[in-house]
Amino acid sequence: MLKSIARILLGGTLAATAAITAAQAADKVVYQLDWLPGGDKAPIYVCINKGFCADAGLEVSIESGRGSSEAITKMATGVSDIGSAGIGALMAAKAGEGVPVTAVYSIFNKGPHAFYTIKGTMETIEDVKGKTVATSPFTESNVYLPLVLADIGLTEADITLTKTDPGALGPMLMTGGTEVIIAWLTDVARYTGQAKEAGKELTILPWSAAGLELYSASLLASDKFLTERPDVARRFIAAFKKSVEFAKDNPREAAEAVAAIVPELSVENVEGSWKDASVLVFNEVTEKDGLGALEASRLAATWERVSAAQGLDPAKLDPESVVDRSFMPGN
């Protein structure tokens, strides 16, 4: 009897020791957000909450962010190892300063930018002419607005543009304070809900309909991280890809994973946001090129748009210098 108890105790001790050893052996990775937590960021929370990161031998912590430029700076300075940010912002930073950060995986293979308006106000993007348009002061969409207007034969003089706090955009639209707002396709559920409460319906016009085809949010990584810990980087990217696929097939569980780590967010809102964002991840571009791919011609087209939008010399950057595809699963 005593020997049996001893064996049980020894087994428990060995199991606990093994668990502690495994935890100690896990490679630490700091993941950088480019904005606040939400449904569009679901995969990294899935990776942590559902154990994909742990299964890959990784202990991942999340660093908050306030825009792509800040996120890139944190990766460039070693505060974070890898994270999400706009590849357009990376291209501009590479062209200007040669930042030591590289894109390794595409998250949004389409731009998220769109016009939102009350149904009956606009039928096509061209109908924005003469309208009052409200936007956030800091959104990346503002960079591309002149290009979109030029694509449809307009300039900013053809609209009345105002900038306001992001939280005021929805109320302004619903109360008639503006005819159009500029917002991301990741916010369809939120603004649709506000419209429903106001007894209204929305018309949403993606800028891709005007020809703004480009890569957007991507996984970027510190060059130091890629150089000094390439195996960790590969394991992380493979786990992240699994998490994206899980979120696609299990949107409710993905939302619950986010809310479990960020309890101030509601599961319903997160689920709606992820479903909105997922059309930028899974679409005809994905079917053609593959999940996470950074295809050469689309990458070149993205740089063409970014350089034009920011007044940069296109010759200052080879878009291929911004990416490293060798870390993609299967490579």
TrEMBL record:
Q: Where is the SsuA/THI5-like domain?
A: 42-254
> Which N-terminal stretch is annotated as signal sequence?
1-25
> What InterPro entries does this protein map onto?
NMT1/THI5, SsuA/THI5
Q: Carries keyword Signal?
A: yes
GO BP terms, alphabetized: thiamine biosynthetic process
Provide this UniProt record's keywords sorted from A to Z: Signal
Signal found in the keyword field = yes
The protein in question is named SsuA/THI5-like domain-containing protein
Q: What species is this protein from?
A: Aquibium carbonis
* Upper classification of the organism: Bacteria, Pseudomonadati, Pseudomonadota, Alphaproteobacteria, Hyphomicrobiales
